[in-house]
Amino acid sequence: MHVGIAGNIGAGKTTLTRLLAKSFGWEPHYEETDTNPYLISFYEDMERWSFNLQVYFLNTRFRQIMDIREKKKTVIQDRTIYEDAYIFAANLHDMNLMSTRDFNNYISLFELMTSFIQAPDLLIYLKADVSTLVSNIQKRGRKYEESIRIDYLNSLNKKYEDWINTYKSGKLLIIDVNKIDFENNPADLASIIEKINAQINGLF
User: Fold this and answer.
1) What's residue 186's pLDDT?
2) Looking at the annotation, which residues are catalytic?
3) What's the predicted TM-score (pTM) here?
């Protein structure tokens, strides 16, 4: 089984991936940030590095999915390949931070790759207000994220809402993280686990 966790920057995807992997005994697949050769450059100059960054993410996530399907284990993935195209690349194009030429090239590559894969069996979307995102980003203190703009996070949130509202590719669980603390409050984590169990039982 393939479980994907979706959500904006700072929504808590990596933390929840780790906690659920431990609780269910699933194999976690994390987003590559520390080893990403484009991320720091991107936040310094989004227009220059947007295409390079998105192609890097697309490539690494496609390889993750191929690995997931080959292993035949239950895997939980920190961010999905669909977010790369429908959220991040599309938003960069809308904000004139990626040219139409590069965006069309990117989408063509994305469509080819996704023709070979399946959507997650269960998608967990972490819904968060921009104020929650900013608070979480500040708490984790990644230097390269200090320059993230509020309007950028706002635009991403709108893209996420539009995508989730039309998502029909598989089971979907929406978790509003604005008023819960699943990292430090066991009751909040237990509530999420209970909801996931209900969804999983409906998969078989």
Assistant:
1) 96
2) 78
3) 0.90
